[in-house]
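ok here's the first one, seq then struct tokens
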Amino acid sequence: MKKRVGLLLSVILIFALIITGCGNQGAAPTESEDTGDNGVEKSSDFNAQMTFNGSSTLAPVMSAIATDFIEEYETWNNVNPDFPEENIAIYVSAGGSGAGVKAALEETSDFGMLAREIKDEEKEKLGENMKDFTLGIDALTISVNPENPLHEIKDDLSSEEIKKIFSGEYKYWDEVDESLEHKEIVVVIRDLGGGAHGVFQNSIMGDTQVREDAIQSPSMGALVTKIIENKDAIGYASFGMVNQNEGKLIPLKVDGVEPTKENIVDGSYKISRPLIVVKKGDLTPEQQAFMDVVTSEKGAEIIEEMGFVPAN
């Protein structure tokens, strides 16, 4: 568990994590073209390395699952005896959902990670052989610093109030509630091209744009850190990140609905989004072996440990 926590912190802080098995990584791929007892073709096409790129929300989850996978098996032949004895190397990098789709499309990464729905035009570009895996559900919570008295005076914001705050129509906290101090509201968002902002825009803002001076964070971890550091800040923090930072930021109700697991699952909490892994084309046997674990009960347990709602 200590190893996992350390790796996750690395992902959050530097937005990229390289997870590798022990020993040499430069081993040459097998040249055999035999078919083993388990029906897995041994060929020079076997790739001991696997890459994931995209959502900064999903990256720590994939890193955690990959860490467990590597600690359990270390080399591919322990996953399947017909795989070569090569060290497992799984690379996870965070750059946003848009970057994840782009990486999958251009095949600069084996898999793309998204914290939003796949757009129709993206599906068309990825082609008929596109493979996608919905791993879980996340929600965007409207969260404030624990020292902000808003959550004690008014723990429920309507969609219209949220829109006014994030658009800049409300610039000071006493405009939200007259009992609050006349202090400027600090709005924190993800970068405008990120999947999280697209979900927030569609769910809350509609055609109204966020205020121009809103602080744009390069990752969900950075957004949460801004709220933790500034008592006048408000932002749409991931449900999983709120759970990982319990007590350090306070999620508010939206239209009277609290962001709980039950309300996210039944759809009553309105600002939710899927966590998806996508690939252009078919999976190789080694990729399928890993994704079988990702989508297994064990993978679901890790997703829940990370504070998200597993899909299965």
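and now the second one, same deal
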Amino acid sequence: MKIGRPVVVVVGAGFGGLAAVKELAKEEVDIILIDQRNHHLFQPLLYQVATAWLSPAEIASPIRNLFSQQRNVTVIMGKVTGIDTEACTLQIDNGPRQGNIDYDYLVLATGASHDYFGNDQWATYAPGLKTVEDATGIRERLLMAFELAEMTAEPAERDAHLTIVVIGGGATGVEMAGSIAELARAALARDFRRIDPRQAKVILIESGPRVLGAFPEDLSEAAMKSLDKLGVTVLTNTRVSDCQKGYVMIGEEKIPAATVIWAAGVKASPAATWLNAEADRAGRVIVESDFSVPGLPNVFVVGDTASAKDATGQTLPGIAPAAKQAGRYAARVIRAKLHGKSAPSPFRYHNYGTMATIGRHAGVADFGWVKFKGHLGWWLWGIVHIFFLIDFRSRVVVSLNWLWSFLTYQRGARLITGNKPENPQLHEAS
């Protein structure tokens, strides 16, 4: 696909991929941006789609629209199936067509998927949260659980429908559990006649000694207290031994639960396999200090796909700011190579803090030199997340929706759009 100018192929339209493409906007190169989907997704807010706070369009932007003014970018919707690093060629499958794309420089920002730690069969019963489809599927499971509980006369079956288990006590699990509890106790509280949604049981299971293990201990304790106020039952030092339709096993104890959500682990994309490169235990490519792959100076890996450290030896976290900084830096290295200049100064990660929210009233934020919790933590979390949304329209819409939800407890995305599960009582009432 050579057309005269150097070709830079970027695979993945997440934070790292977009940052790399934008950094090369003024360069005399042809950039090919490849993604399986046609939209960039703001993953940190996916849980709010899953819990009916936001709709998918409010946290996603069409990729072509993002780069409609950047004339050196061509967007291809397709799936990379392999890479020939000797020929500098990617194999791509975009449905009815398959073919190869040549590159001079390659940036892989292909993200991560769910890791069930060798129990992939659990995915059917405990979906994770990485895509819009994941979020809308979880939203439908949650909302349908209350509908089925309303139509069920058997107490044990009703209790199972009103029990939601979230597995994993990191930021995603804590935010999901708090938001589900709030959905049940506030947004749905007056919507039903035969059940009281406020009686729903939300259980958060964490294998470690505390939730938010990456945060300072005092912020972890603050999160625990906030979850307790919302009525969430937190089980720490607890491992799931089995997950099947309608229940979760922790050791020998069986927890009947119609809705189970996985937030316990992630694994990298198959980039290491494509490149035949060394990877860590999570499958992330171990990269050089400039994000290039050892032995492949024209191939770069950033974001959740990379196992990287900065010039100070700090391991980069799998969060949006780190991916954006890595994407920009990799693009600067490519720019230096294009112009025959020396490499940029060693990469240093600028830590903008880690944050998590628990419901509408509490949050925790750790900026290293200062920590916040409670209402202030929640507001800081909201401001930072709105700032990182891609386009101005998304920032305005999300801000207005959050303000409306905060003042009224109403959630405007409580739609069940998929097929209804087989349930005679529900069909009879339809």
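notes on #2: DSSP finds twelve helices and 25 strands in the chain. The chain has two domains: 7-36+78-114+266-338, 120-264+360-422.
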